[in-house]
Input
Amino acid sequence: MKKLLTKIVITLCIAVLAISMVGCGSSESNTSEKKILRIGVSPGPYNDLFNQAVKPILEKKGYEIKLVNFSDLLQSEVALTEGSIDFNVAQHTAYVDAFNKDKQAHLVPILHIPTVPAGIFSNKYGSIQDVKEGAKIAIPLDPSNAARAFALLQKAGWIKLKPGIDVTLATKNDIVENNHKLDITLMESAQIPRAMDDVDFAVLPGSIVYAAHIDAAKSLLTEDVAKKLELNVVVNQGNENSQWAQDIVAAYKSDEFKKYMSENNKNNYWVIPDELK
Output
């Protein structure tokens, strides 16, 4: 009987100790700092800028950065909402707002970062003054980049949009004047460079200029980047105040990053937001 009681006491002690160890382990897991960060990446200048200028800063702080590749931004967005990645750096506020509304998601921009502006390009003409009546103009199909294109065509003096509208939401229906009778065709952004010989002018987002290896200096007119169209570091709601998210923000705001941009921003290729200057 005495031996039985001893065994029961020993068993209970072991069980209590095991539970205590599990509890301690769980507590450490919840309170310990996250040191492995997963970023969703797709081809484009923004991810390359992160890899070259921001990733080394975070690695010096002890972070391990894992790149998770996606063929397009939408896949990265879905992964971000599902938690299989922690952040991405390739979307502007207008895109985030549209995605959140469409997918009932809760993505949160935490910092505006350098952005490559859209521009008007041509394989046939050297100036926007060369536009002729009925000129064929190719612009991006997706709503946010299409709106940027319409704003840029207005800046060129080729069209006029309805007064008072939010130009970041402009559509073809908002054109109230088209004195040159421009033939505006909307197409997938990635297809526009291949169609350049078939059109007179084209509006190309900065990411497409980069991916197609087009010289950005050949832009005939560059957009004025609206605040809603500046790129962001984006996380899922609930992570915006985490230490790792704040360390990403600090890396972009660091003197080391400013030094990199001052040495590598040739011909003002990047538009730098006020909070990073």
About this structure: The first strand starts at residue 36 and ends at 41. The CA atoms of residues 61 and 216 lie 34 Å apart. The mean pLDDT is 88. Helices lie at 2-31, 45-60, 73-82, 93-103, 143-155, 206-211, 243-253, 255-264.
